[in-house]
Design a protein that fits this description.
Strand content: under 5%
Number of strands: 0
Distance between the termini: 19 Å
Mean pLDDT: 70
Helix content: 55-70%
Number of helices: 2
């Protein structure tokens, strides 16, 4: 149970992106705004 709770806590935290990832995300956003948001694990 505690593990599940821990995972939920992690999921709630916004993912920390490197500048490179941020740029890629921006490009993806421009390309396709209908794509569902993918949360990297």
């Amino acid at each position: 149970m505690s593990k599940l709770r821990q995972r939920n806590k992690e999921a709630r935290k916004p993912p920390v992106l490197t500048p490179k990832e941020k740029k890629a995300a921006k490009k993806l956003k421009k390309q396709d705004t209908t794509a569902p948001r993918i949360i990297p694990r």
